[in-house]
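Data card: per-record layout.
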Amino acid sequence: MTKYNVNPDEDEILPNLLNSNSKKEIEEAEFEGFLYAEILLTTQLSDKTKFDLNYIKNIHYLALKDVYSFAGKYRTVNIPNLDLCFQQPDFYKYQ
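The structure for this 95-residue chain is written out next.
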């Protein structure tokens, strides 16, 4: 069992604001959120746009604020994923 109490042979669905257990529904909401963030931020680009850590956190917030309560924040738990390698939360303590 993992932090989110699922069996190892199941996909792990993170707690979400949609109260959904549907991987497809969550993926669609994430896609729509990133599309929204891309459109919004593209229209706001200027010579003074600063691509720093706060900007990246803002992208994450805008894209996922309707899906996850942790949108735009540093991760505090490990997220196991077979397809991607995530930085461990302890790494952020030293940044």
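Known properties of this structure: The longest helix spans residues 23-44. The mean pLDDT is 82.

See the next section for split statistics.
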